[in-house]
TrEMBL record:
Species this protein is from: Photobacterium alginatilyticum
Binding site residues for pyruvate: T45, I203
Descriptive protein name: 4-hydroxy-tetrahydrodipicolinate synthase
Keywords attached to this entry: Amino-acid biosynthesis, Cytoplasm, Diaminopimelate biosynthesis, Lyase, Lysine biosynthesis, Schiff base
InterPro entries: Aldolase_TIM, DapA, DapA-like, Schiff_base-form_aldolases_AS, Schiff_base-form_aldolases_CS
Phylogenetic classification of the source organism: Bacteria, Pseudomonadati, Pseudomonadota, Gammaproteobacteria, Vibrionales
NCBIfam families per record: dapA
Top-level taxon in the UniProt lineage: Bacteria
Annotated CDD domains: DHDPS
Pfam families per UniProt: DHDPS
Enzyme category, top tier: lyase
Length: 293
């Protein structure tokens, strides 16, 4: 159902910090032209934590409108309150979104049983396909493969975005969940190795600024042309790493602005613009990747 290079899309903001919907339309066109396989709208890279509920819903719906059926749109619906994640999932029911991506609850650090009950409640409240999202480095909780396996038995929980960078989990998850359970990397630096180990694709930050290279690389990888894919990945590796020199999405929004993909690199507090000391490193990575002349 979902494979290849999927972008964790940034949400463009104008100078006043309001959502730039014209800029959003341009980003959608950029990804369609580049061959991106799906768009995640208002995931964590899309600053879901600082958009209002109304903005969150509108950005997803506008992304759907701009996509106009030409590319699947996955809605970010995660929250650290189960009722809030359920509300988002219900709001997108019947809208045309291809699936929901729901991050593990952050800060409250639920137990494995709590994680199971959280996702079970969401899945039972909607008919939409659900993709789990495990990113311990940002949420302070790690959803273990055994918990994922329990959740995989629920019909509309169809896959996971795994940002642990632990490649051993690909095989473990496949053994526990079966080959049809979709495994997507959430870590660009290990994304290609994730697919080589049996994963299905990546939900990528790098794809925001190197969409065509990422799309080509994962098409090659999924067709068995790993060596050709590795050539592209080696060129992109400095970018994969440097886009996290400060908290995501600070560097990638600055980079997208430098490339003219968005008019402003604006973020909402508590995130601030990329520091002057980090800017040369991001510029160098863009040049090394041959994304910036």
């Amino acid at each position: 159902m979902f494979s290849g290079s999927m972008v964790a899309l940034v949400t463009p903001l104008d100078e006043a910090g309001e959502v730039d919907y014209a800029g959003l339309a341009s980003l959608v066109e950029y990804h369609i032209a580049a061959g991106t396989d799906a768009i995640v709208a208002v995931g964590t890279t899309g600053e879901s934590a600082t958009l209002t509920v109304d903005e969150h819903v509108k950005v997803v719906l506008k992304t759907l409108e701009f996509a106009n059926g030409r590319i699947p749109v996955i809605a970010g619906t995660g929250a650290n309150a189960t009722h809030e994640a359920i509300t988002f999932s219900k709001l997108f029911s019947g809208t045309g979104v291809a699936a929901c991506l729901s991050v593990t609850p952050y800060y409250n650090k639920p137990t494995q049983e709590g994680l199971y009950q959280h996702y079970k409640a969401i899945a039972e409240a909607t008919e939409l396909p659900q993709i789990l999202y495990n990113v311990p480095g940002r949420t302070a909780v790690d959803m273990l493969p055994e918990t994922v396996a329990r959740l995989a038995r629920i019909d509309n929980i169809v896959g996971i975005k795994d940002a642990t960078g632990d490649l051993a989990r690909v095989q473990k998850t496949r053994e526990l969940c079966g080959e049809d359970f979709i495994q997507l990397s959430g870590d660009d630096a290990t994304g290609l190795d994730f697919v080589a180990a049996g994963g299905h694709g990546v939900i990528s930050v790098t794809a925001n600024v190197a969409a065509d290279d990422m799309a080509t690389m994962f098409k090659l990888a999924l067709s068995g042309q790993i060596d050709a894919a590795r050539e592209i990945n080696e060129r992109l590796m400095p970018l994969h790493k440097t886009l996290f020199v400060e908290s995501n999405p600070i560097p990638v929004k600055w980079a997208a602005h430098q490339l003219g993909l968005i008019k402003h690199g604006q973020l909402r507090l508590p995130l601030t613009e990329l520091s002057e000391s980090a800017q040369p490193a991001v510029t160098a990575a863009l040049k090394d990747a041959k994304v910036l002349p």
